[in-house]
Amino acid sequence: MTIQELEATCRQVRRDIINMTADAGSGHPGGSLSVTEILVALYFSKMKIDPKNPHDPNRDRFVLSKGHATPALYGVLGRRGYFPVEEFKGFRQIHSILQGHPDMKKCPGVDASTGSLGQGASIAAGMALGAKYSGNPCHVYAALGDGECQEGLIWEASMAAAHYKLDNLTFILDNNGLQIDGSNNQVMSLGDIPAKFAAFGFHVVEVKDGNDMRQVLDALDQPAETGKPTCIICHTTKGKGVSYMENQAGWHGKAPNEEQRAQALKELEA
Amino acid sequence: MSEKIATRVAYGQTLVELGKQNDKIVVLDADLASATMTKYFKDAYPERHFEVGIAEADLIDLGVGMSTMGLTPFCSTFAVFGGRCFEQIRNSVCYPHNNVKLAFTHAGLTVGEDGGSHQAIEDIALMRVLPGMTVIAPCDANETRKAVLAAAEMDGPVYLRLARLPTAVFDDMPFTVGKGHVMREGKDAVIFTYGTMVEVSLDAAKLLADKGMDVAVVNIHTLKPLDEELVRAYAQKCGKVFTVEEHSIIGGLGDAAAAAIAGKVSCQFCKIGVEDRFGQSGKPMDVLREYGLCADQIADRILKF
């Protein structure tokens, strides 16, 4: 895919995010819009996957540790062909494969059930550890939220990732700076995030604009450092692409109404 | 009766046996391998034994990740720390029904000297409430071996409750997950029990026999799924039902058996266990006595009921 096609896919997925949350009347648009380039880059460019064979044992794995960003994940999985995009209408509705938070037993392409913050990072480390033990050549990616890094389990998993030299593991931090109750710094300061991951033994890569497809791809294409897990810290904008949502903590977990949907879709036109 | 063996020891030994048969078996431990006895496996298969450090939440989710790669992880720590990683067990193990085995040792009051902070009296309640979780508390070394082998064969989460205290090893008996085992027949009353309390309950039944009371002892090694038919059959036959457990009377076998019986069998019913209090330090038998869980105390309660 060309970079223009990837960017067009991001706009499509952003429209899906708006439609899914508006249709459901609930969901998490803010952090879905910030993580969009990361997910599109992974599923449409970087990862070795086959949507027709979602259980291929040697596929690359992805864990949405910030599990509330399902509108982005489902948008990407649907557009990639894991399931018909008609399923989007069922998002958060009874009997749907598209649960509020990812369900690996219901939705094709979801490699781990997540939603309780911190757990996905540790599961991803376990996958990478299991892959090393089994001689499986796959790479494991996990998308983490910045507020999520307030969970102790992120650091337990990080210690294990470094201890076991999991160079087949990449954490990607969607560093949009906001969480439910305000900015990270208001709620619980994260301090120097790159220095923290470096101190825990990660090969750290910073992406100045994590909503710039070229920059995200370049970071993903950097070779891993032998014997070290990688942490790519993407500076992103919460609510990216929808003017009234950008940098507003209030759009973490709120759905647009019909008027807001129309405006957002207009702004996200192809 | 031969030498007493703790179920944690039998667990460690069986892991080695399992590891020999199946290279998908991996073991994770949170800096307690020499207490949970996964050290036997660590010595035999160091490349398959993973220390996670003192980090129980990570213990569970690393195991979950490994299970999604087609491996069968056994995660071990002390039962009391199962509460710390309860939500990992709930959301990452049980909610997606991942194939993770939790073998937690040092359950119950018989931990002894370490005291109330280390004596899990709530673990059965916590594990039993999770959809899809199988809960097994074997009573001796032989049953532990069979339970560990059975857990490895099953697809899905299993909780194994294991003890620190060496206990009697009974003659080999049949073991099927979800099927209780009658250890002693009787007609005047029945004791439903599991784990370390099987030996104690059999001793109580002997004391009661001397007083002319014929008491059945049924080993309910599988707390979930409960052998409800067997529970109801013995409640019906004996008329007086006692549950004995080294666990809180809230949420344990007592409540499980009561739920199976209620509205279906008319009988007298009494839960014997830890009565909504925490444990404390002491020699294991001294602690059991303090909580009314020695054979003579149980016999006395049954006689006076």
Describe how the helices and strands are arranged.
The complex is a heterodimer of chains A (270) and B (305).
Chain A: H1 3-24, H2 29-34, H3 36-46, E1 61-64, H4 70-80, H5 119-134, E2 140-145, H6 152-163, E3 169-175, E4 178-179, E5 182-183, H7 184-187, H8 193-199, E6 203-207, H9 213-221, E7 230-235, H10 258-267
Parallel strand pairs in A: 1-2, 2-3, 3-7, 6-7
Antiparallel strand pairs in A: 4-5
Helix pairs in contact in A: 1-3, 1-4, 1-10, 3-4, 3-9, 5-6
Chain B: H1 7-21, E1 25-29, H2 33-36, H3 39-44, E2 49-51, H4 56-68, E3 72-78, H5 86-94, E4 101-105, H6 123-128, E5 134-136, H7 141-153, E6 158-161, E7 181-184, E8 189-193, H8 197-210, E9 215-219, E10 222-224, H9 228-238, E11 240-248, H10 253-261, E12 268-274, H11 284-290, H12 295-304
Parallel strand pairs in B: 1-2, 1-3, 3-4, 4-6, 5-6, 8-9, 8-11, 11-12
Antiparallel strand pairs in B: 5-10, 7-9
Task: Tell me roughly what share of residues is in helical segments of chain B.
Answer: 25-40%
Oligomeric state of the chains present here: heterodimer
CATH architecture of the largest domain in chain B: 3-Layer(aba) Sandwich
CATH class of the largest domain in chain B: Alpha Beta
What's the CATH H-level superfamily name of the largest domain in chain B?
A: Thiamin diphosphate (ThDP)-binding fold, Pyr/PP domains
Strand order of the largest sheet of chain B: 2-1-3-4-6-5-10
Major β-sheet profile of chain B: 7 strands, mixed
Main sheet record of chain A = 5 strands, parallel
| Overall number of domains of chain B | 2
Q: Got a strand count of chain A? A: 7
CATH level-4 homologous superfamily of chain A: Thiamin diphosphate (ThDP)-binding fold, Pyr/PP domains
- CA(first)-CA(last) distance of chain A: 17 Å
H/I helix tally of chain B: 12
Give the amount of beta strand of chain B, in percent: 15-25%
